[in-house]
C-alpha cells in the first residue's frame, strides 16, 4: 500500500515537473491566440474569406512586414531572404493558420497540428488536409516555411514508461499529420529527465523516439528546439542537442531550431556582439550549421543565464533590438522559417515589420 502511494506521489512529481514548462508555454500561446482572435477587426475578418482571385493575388505578392490592406503600396521583397512569421491559430480549421499568417504579413508561420493539450485527437481527414494544402498554395507559402510545433505534452525522454509510450505514439501521429499536409519540418521540445534519470539516458530515449518515428514515417525532418536549462529539461546545452543528433540514424531527417529567448536564458548573451558570436561559434562547432532548420524569435523577460523560459516582445526584453538586428543581418538565417512566439501586448504584424526594418 505504502509503495503504491509512494509510486503515485512520484508520478505526480514527474508530471508536475514535465508540465511546469508546458503550462507556461500554453499560457503564452493561448493568450496570444485569444488576443489575435479578440482583436481581429471586422475588416480583417473579411479578408480571411477572399472572394476574388485578385484579392488573393494582391496578398500573395505582398511583401512581408507590410499591412495586409489591399491599398498599401507594393515594394520589393525584404532583402536578405529572411522569412519572418509568427505562431498562428488553427481555431476554426488548419487552413485558418494560413489566413492568419497572411493577415500578419508573414512569410513563414508556426502552428499546432491539433489541440496541444490532449494526447488524442481525431484523425486528420483528407478534406481538411487538402483544404490546408490548397490554401497554402493559393497564398504563396512554400511548405518549407511552415513550422508545425509539437504537442507540449510530449516528453520523448521521460523516465515514466506511460508518458514515454504516449509521447512516442504522439510523435509518430504528428509526423504523419505533417506528411499528410505536405510539410517537411516538425519542431518539438526534446524532453526532461524529470530529475529521475541521468541526462545521457534521457538523450538515448529521445534519440530512440526519433528513430522509431522516422521508421514509421517517410520524409519529415524532426527539428529539436534548444531549451533554457530550466529545471530538468534537456537541450539547453548545445552538447545535449549534438548528443541526440549523434544517435539519430537518419541524419538527413534531424535538425535544430534555435529559440533566442531560450539561448539567452541558457547563457548566450545575445544583447552583446560577443554573446552572439559565441552562440554562432557553438552552433557551428558543437552542432553543425547544416542542422539549423528554423529559429524562434523571442526576446527574454529574464536576465542572461537565468534559465527561465519567459518570452518577451521583440526589443522590450533583455536581448533588445540590437540583438535581433544581428540575427536579422546574418546570412546563416536566410531561407529558413523565423517564428515569433511572443506574448500579447504588441501585435505580431508590428513585430514582423519591426524585424524586417532591422535588416
Ligand atoms: Zn520556442
Ligand atoms: Zn519558451
Automatic annotation (TrEMBL):
InterPro entries: AP_endonuc_2, AP_endonuc_F2_Zn_BS, Xyl_isomerase-like_sf, Xyl_isomerase-like_TIM-brl. One of its GO terms (molecular function) is DNA binding. Residues 34-82 are annotated as: Disordered. Keywords: DNA damage, DNA repair, Hydrolase, Metal-binding, Zinc. Residues 101-356 form the Xylose isomerase-like TIM barrel domain. GO terms for cellular component: mitochondrion; nucleus. PROSITE patterns: AP_NUCLEASE_F2_1 (PS00729), AP_NUCLEASE_F2_2 (PS00730), AP_NUCLEASE_F2_3 (PS00731), AP_NUCLEASE_F2_4 (PS51432). Residues 47-60 have a biased composition (Basic and acidic residues). GO terms for biological process: base-excision repair. Its cofactor is Zn(2+). It holds the Pfam family AP_endonuc_2. PANTHER family: APURINIC-APYRIMIDINIC ENDONUCLEASE (PTHR21445:SF0), ENDONUCLEASE IV ENDODEOXYRIBONUCLEASE IV (PTHR21445). Belongs to the AP endonuclease 2 family. This is Xylose isomerase-like TIM barrel domain-containing protein.
Amino acid at each position: 500500500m505504502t509503495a503504491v502511494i509512494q509510486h503515485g506521489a512520484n508520478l505526480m512529481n514527474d508530471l508536475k515537473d514535465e508540465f511546469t514548462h508546458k503550462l507556461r508555454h500554453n499560457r503564452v500561446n493561448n493568450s496570444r491566440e485569444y488576443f489575435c482572435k479578440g482583436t481581429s477587426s471586422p475588416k480583417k475578418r473579411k479578408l480571411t474569406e477572399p472572394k476574388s482571385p485578385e484579392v488573393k493575388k494582391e496578398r500573395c505578392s505582398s511583401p512581408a512586414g507590410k499591412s495586409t490592406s489591399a491599398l498599401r503600396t507594393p515594394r520589393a521583397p525584404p532583402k536578405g531572404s529572411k522569412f519572418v512569421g509568427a505562431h498562428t491559430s488553427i481555431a476554426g480549421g488548419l487552413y485558418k493558420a494560413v489566413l492568419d499568417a497572411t493577415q500578419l504579413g508573414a512569410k513563414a508561420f508556426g502552428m499546432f497540428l491539433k489541440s496541444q493539450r490532449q494526447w488524442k485527437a481525431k484523425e486528420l481527414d483528407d478534406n481538411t488536409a487538402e483544404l490546408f494544402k490548397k490554401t497554402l498554395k493559393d497564398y504563396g507559402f512554400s511548405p518549407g516555411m511552415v513550422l508545425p510545433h509539437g504537442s507540449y505534452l510530449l516528453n520523448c525522454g521521460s523516465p515514466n514508461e506511460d508518458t514515454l509510450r504516449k509521447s512516442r505514439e504522439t510523435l509518430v501521429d504528428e509526423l504523419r499529420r505533417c506528411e499528410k499536409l505536405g510539410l517537411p519540418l516538425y519542431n518539438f521540445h526534446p524532453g526532461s529527465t524529470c530529475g529521475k534519470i541521468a541526462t545521457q539516458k534521457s538523450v538515448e530515449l529521445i534519440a530512440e523516439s526519433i528513430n522509431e518515428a522516422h521508421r514509421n514515417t517517410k520524409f519529415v525532418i524532426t527539428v529539436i528546439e534548444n531549451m533554457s536549462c530550466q529545471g530538468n529539461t534537456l537541450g539547453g546545452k548545445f552538447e545535449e542537442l549534438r548528443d541526440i543528433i549523434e544517435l539519430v540514424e537518419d541524419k538527413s531527417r534531424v535538425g535544430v531550431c534555435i529559440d533566442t529567448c531560450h539561448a539567452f536564458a541558457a547563457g548566450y548573451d545575445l544583447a552583446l556582439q560577443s554573446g552572439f558570436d559565441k552562440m554562432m561559434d557553438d552552433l557551428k562547432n558543437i552542432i553543425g550549421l547544416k542542422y539549423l532548420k528554423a529559429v524562434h524569435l523571442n526576446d527574454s523577460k529574464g536576465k542572461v543565464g537565468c534559465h527561465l523560459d519567459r518570452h518577451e516582445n521583440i526589443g522590450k526584453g533583455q536581448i533588445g533590438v540590437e540583438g535581433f538586428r544581428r540575427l536579422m543581418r546574418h546570412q546563416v538565417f536566410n531561407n529558413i522559417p523565423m517564428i515569433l512566439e511572443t506574448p500579447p501586448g504588441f501585435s505580431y504584424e508590428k513585430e514582423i515589420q519591426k524585424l524586417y526594418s532591422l535588416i
